[in-house]
Amino acid sequence: MSALRAFLGRHSEQLYALVRIVVPFIYVCHGAQKLFGVLGGHPVWSGPPIFIAAGFIEMTCGPLMMLGLFTTPAAFIASGEMAIAFFYVHVPSGGLVPILNHGELPVVFCFVFLYIASRGAGVWSMDRLRGADESA
């Protein structure tokens, strides 16, 4: 077990970068569903403005996090958007328990993005290249 922990520890920065890239990619897919109706989604242009705003946040903050550019504010905004999604969409339709209201994904996104906001961009990031990554 200690060999596995040592191996993972040696690569923790790269593993964090993969989380910072892959999780926002899934988030961007949800934005593409909302705004463009692709990937099995339906465009929300005629829906409530909050859904249109959510799509724009997802299509803006997701790529920024993936690139590691303005990572902390982008991740913080995305985290807040997911908290709003949970309480505005999921809680009214099924209560506070995520497994019952189908809000597991917004909860996971919210806390992963909050962690990314607290940690910064890390390796493989535009923030690091431009000397603005405080996690360096």
In a few lines, what is going on in this structure?
The chain is an all-alpha fold and 136 residues long. The protein is 74% helix and 0% strand. The longest helix has 25 residues, at 12-36.
Architecture overview:
This protein has 136 residues and is mostly helical. 74% of the residues lie in helices and 0% in strands. It has helices at residues 2-10, 12-36, 49-67, 71-94, 98-101, 104-119, 126-129. The longest helix is centred in the first third of the chain and has 25 residues, at 12-36. The radius of gyration is 16 Å and the shape is globular.
What's the rounded overall pLDDT mean?
95
Largest sheet: none
Number of helices: 7
Strand content: under 5%
Task: Count every beta strand, where a strand is a DSSP E run of 2 or more residues.
Answer: 0
Radius of gyration from CA coordinates:
16 Å
The SS-based structural class is mainly alpha
Q: Unreliable stretches, pLDDT < 50, 5 or more residues? A: none
Distance between the termini: 29 Å
**N-to-C SSE series?**
HHHHHHH
What form results from the Cα inertia axes? Answer: globular
Helix proportion range: over 70%
